[in-house]
UniProtKB/TrEMBL annotation:
Stored NCBIfam families: PRK11609.1
PANTHER family membership: LD05707P, PYRAZINAMIDASE/NICOTINAMIDASE
Identification of the protein by name: Nicotinamidase
The enzyme's E.C. designation: 3.5.1.19
Alphabetized UniProt keyword annotations: Hydrolase, Metal-binding, Pyridine nucleotide biosynthesis
Matches recorded under Pfam families: Isochorismatase
Amino acid sequence: MKKALIIVDVQNDFCEGGALAVPEANSIIPYINLLMEENEYDEIILTQDWHPANHKSFASNNGKNVGETISLNGVPQFMWPDHCVQGTFGAEFHKDLNRDKVTHIIQKGKNVEIDSYSGFQDNNHFMKTGLEDFLKYHDIQLVEIVGLALDYCVKFTAIDAFNAGFITCLHFNGTKAVNVKPDSARNTIYDLAEKGITILA
């Protein structure tokens, strides 16, 4: 059975000191590096948030405060600080992440009008990123997922992987939550497990 590792958004803006830092984000990088070192993956894929500066998920572009929610093209949109802007240091992958074995990079969130938490498609399910086609072209049947943040981009990437027919596993030690709400991490794990996604602890 061919398997892939999907590493979600391990970028400077989500790590310590970043514009949208996830608590303890840096602590997962050695674990992810070890996974790549100790396991044989047929494909190792990085997803990368890659927003234009005028992206409408940014509070600054809507005259809103970070943490407010608006309706954006018919779906609720949480207002984020500016982050992972194309071509900036914040959008780059963290220097400690070993990329020697990476085979493919998927950029997401490039459409000004709609956010894209999942590595597979935007939040409106209008546009796919090409990740599903890439995995199926390479006969991948099982995907393991790590990265940032558990309660947003990791969660929706895992759900979309499962819904696309892949056996889907989440490494609990390879992810951290942004925890906009206090129980986000716990609730996300329960939600994913209930859907049929395997949690590897």
